[in-house]
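Researcher: I'm comparing several assemblies side by side, and this is the next one on my list. It has 581 residues spread over two chains. Same procedure as the others: predict the full complex and return the structure.
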Amino acid sequence: MRHIEVGLGVWGMQSPYMRPAPVARTYREAVRHARLADELGFDSFWMGEHRVSYCGTCPSVLVAGAHLLAATERLTFGAGVLLLPIHGARRVADACAVIDAVAPGRLRLGLGLGYRESEFGAAGRQRAQRLSLYTDALEQLVGSLRGELGSTELWFTGDAKPMIQRAASVGGSILISQNMTNDDVVWIADLYKSNLRPGPQRPMISLAREVWATSPDDDGSDYARRLTAMWLHYANEWVSGAMKDDPTARHEFADRRTKDTAIIGGPDEIVDALAPAIERGVDQVILKIQFQGMDSDRIDDQMRLLATEVAPRLRELS
Amino acid sequence: MNGRRVSVMLSSTDAAAVLRGAEICERHGIDGVWVGALNTAAPSTATLFTILGAVSARTSDIRLGAIFGLGAGNPLHVAEDIGVVDQASGGRLELAVVNDGSDGWIERVATLLSGWSTWPYPVPDAVVVTPRPAQPFVPRLLVRADASAAERVHAGVMLAASDVDVITSPVSIPRVAVCLPIADCRSLLRQPAAAFGDAVVAVRQRLDIVGADEIVLELAAGDPAFEAVVERVAVVLGPAMRCVASDIGWLVPDAEAWRSGPR
């Protein structure tokens, strides 16, 4: 029988136009959310990173991770994701060693490539070299620096086949993005398992989904509106060509993203929507309830609802 | 009476010991903890600021000091880590930047410390480092630096005790911290009560000569006696560093008696 984990994501300590806030408050709120998640029995708490952003998104995910882990007792912290080509291996290994000393076995290091020109530029690096920077750094992390990481788990993002094969070949776990459907889980799990070389950590397949459980007091419309605003924001980064200068096309893109990927409904609908992925091999579901612009108190309520009505039923699917 | 601060430099390569040490210092009312080292064997900035990220979650009032050199690390990450730790700690971070002796080091320090308003890598557009610190001005000291370097970045200086021994008049820099190395602290803080008063007076005189605003005591964070030593610093040494100099004669024995009495 598999052990199914339920995690929460994805914090970033932003102060966006959808919800301007003093940055220090966003860190305090994240601590409160992490403690509540710990208390409610969630398995993991995930955070992303970006830099040189107008909304102050946290660029030092491992420093913030150390902060959240020191504030909690049990849950694991997921760096989802750390942009490896920008940090480099030495810096990552040093930070992981500290976290492993103060919170042994509670760090999941999700490694990503990054894509924003401004982030690479601010670090004095070329976006065009990101793959070679990533590969070089990864070789060091799984090679000469592996011992310094202690019990840190390595997690890999990216839905492309080479990334999945690479993760499996070093015994790492994988994070499947919300871009992948439940049907995609079948080929991803097959590819991962057929290339898997056992290592020191439990190899896991994880799936991220935007999820909001509705209740008599909350029909999910605020979540949907804010999620759409977030996709609109990301549209500026992701889309290119004519769409970039076409406000209507960008709004259509954002609306479609919310409709296609978010699971907004009662606990039964959420469990039904996630069950096929778990049956096809997913070991951990990351419920993405936090993003730019979510109200902090609503997050508290949502965590309680998911902890009582959804998480136990997802775990039973094992 | 003066407002001189008493801080502890947590000396250990064990991050868990540093974390526990910071909690002990806060519990005993120490003004600040410093992490890092004055010499070139200092930990990397990634190590340092990750430790401070953890410390900031387990403490609420104590000032958090980072002693570091710029070395080979990317200054962007240092500036980012400073912003994150200062925000996460609610504005408790202080910096001590070590002169590595390389050409142009003070210009690199200046670039780092202005990163939240200008950043010298305008690719593809002008950017600034985010998040900015919670404090409008992060307190900063320079180590092994002269007055002109300190003036360049609006900093004070952190002096090693050996520097103080060759200075005979107050240093004309707005803020001066004096660091007592681990061996001096060990010998000072293990003095029997009868001899402690004289030892404290000697330390106090060294601080007064240079007009020090802060004494930083380097202590071994993993030492089994750490908490007892910190308690002596907080209860006896701290007040003796702040009181009217002529009061040390009665304050030290009274505080020692209080410390060793029934609780």
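Model: For your comparison table: Chain B touches chain A at residues 14-16, 19, 43-44, 46-47, 49-58, 73-74, 76-77, 80-81, 83-85, 87-88, 90-91, 119, 121-125, 127-132, 134 (CB under 8 Å).
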